[in-house]
Amino acid sequence: MAAEHVEHERAEHDDHPAYPVGLRLSGRRVVVIGGGQVAQRRLPALIAAGADIVLVSPSATPSVEAMADAGEITWNKRPYEDGDLAGTWYALVASSDADANNAASAEAERTRTWCVRSDDADAATAWTPATGRSEGVTVAVLTADVQGRDPRHTAAIRDAVVEGLRDGTLVARHHRTRTPGVALVGGGPGDPDLITVRGRRLLAEADVVIADRLGPRDLLDELPPHVEVIDAAKIPYGRYMAQEAINNALIEHAKAGKAVVRLKGGDPFVFGRGMEEAQALAEAGIPCTVVPGISSSISVPGAAGIPVTHRGVAHEFTVVSGHVAPDDERSLVDWPALARLRGTLVVLMGVDKIGAIAQTLIAHGKAAETPVALVQEGTTAAQRRVDATLATVAETARAADVRPPAVIVIGDVVAVGTK
Ligand SMILES: C[S@@+](CC[C@H](N)C(=O)[O-])C[C@H]1O[C@@H](n2cnc3c(N)ncnc32)[C@H](O)[C@@H]1O
């Protein structure tokens, strides 16, 4: 009779949509029945919510066991028993024992405990939405009713929203928490897919973007028309140095209340003058957020099939600037010391001076036959790689008309991918 009553109630409720709510489970008892794959998937979010979790199950997957070992959950290593849900706010019933699931579900109904069931959504009093997070917001997608349940579709909607927010194709401007001031964003080596998720989001929220020649220029085309895009190389500098003029432009736009992104190639702090800009902003009292980027020094060799380290070949790599010749008094690089290193040498901004650099390295003991690769416009459609040795690189680079931007890799790792 009681069972009939429950069936009747359920049929009545079936037509109504589920009511979405966010449970604040911190410090509250949550019971999970069953330690299999479902528990393994659901437990991390319950742990993150701070719930006081009790797992009731004779067995558990190694991952769930690790959560118990780490003290994140309490594991009662036995089958479900009536009374396990006493004092419980929320239950997840997901064991492989149908009788135990039914009994636990009945106890939940009796004790007015919201209960999710992995084996019978229709019999459950709560459903788990497909969830994802993006910048402090939880996106939760729930099927409206049992008839319309299509978990793959809800997951696909969740993915579309979260991905869109992350990559900036779905723009939801922050109002109260919009990042103020200037964001120094490392744009990566050039391929627009190689900017970070945070960088892309900030770009999507910008009013003004001041961009370098290097970096993901393609992303600028995607910005809405109201966004002012300024080419850093074209900022007139009159009585200032070019860098000072850029700093001033950043400060001016930020002071006008604009969300400003300073988009730089690679990482802002690898030969990127990022700290000079951060310091100028700090002096002007403008908040500055730094977003790291993928540096060309590692990614461009990688894109051309060259690992900067390789087991048994190189245990170190050194990144140097080659923008001034080794005998130039402004050079801060200890080239004789570099010639003695066994590892990989990565030279940025070195195309013009590669002849002098190679000569200096050989003069200080580096083998003339050390392999060298020049990778021009790495990660872009125009990427090309030119191989040589220290002895031949100046002539080879000239003959092949290698032009900046190029990363030059010197060392035995150059030959690793080609073997
Ligand atoms: C001023 S430095 C900036 C480096 C940048 N901050 C980084 O982390 O990649 C410019 C030099 O980086 C290298 N570079 C940057 N992007 C490159 C790319 N896509 N292909 C080859 N070299 C690149 C070149 O050596 C170029 O002359």
UniProtKB/TrEMBL annotation:
Highest taxon of source: Bacteria
Keywords for the protein's UniProt record, in alphabetical order: Methyltransferase, Porphyrin biosynthesis, S-adenosyl-L-methionine, Transferase
Keyword set includes S-adenosyl-L-methionine: yes
Domain annotation Tetrapyrrole methylase: ranges: 182-393
Active site annotation, chain numbering: D212, K234
EC number(s) from the headed UniProt entry: 2.1.1.107
Group of enzyme by EC: transferase
Pfam families associated with the record: NAD_binding_7, TP_methylase
Gene Ontology MF terms in the entry: NAD binding; precorrin-2 dehydrogenase activity; sirohydrochlorin ferrochelatase activity; uroporphyrin-III C-methyltransferase activity
GO BP annotation list: cobalamin biosynthetic process; methylation; siroheme biosynthetic process
InterPro entries: 4pyrrol_Mease (IPR000878), 4pyrrol_Methylase_sf (IPR035996), 4pyrrole_Mease_sub1 (IPR014777), 4pyrrole_Mease_sub2 (IPR014776), CobA/CysG_C (IPR006366), NAD(P)-bd_dom_sf (IPR036291), Siro_Cobalamin_biosynth (IPR050161), Sirohaem_synth (IPR012409)
Assigned protein family: Belongs to the precorrin methyltransferase family.
Name of protein: uroporphyrinogen-III C-methyltransferase
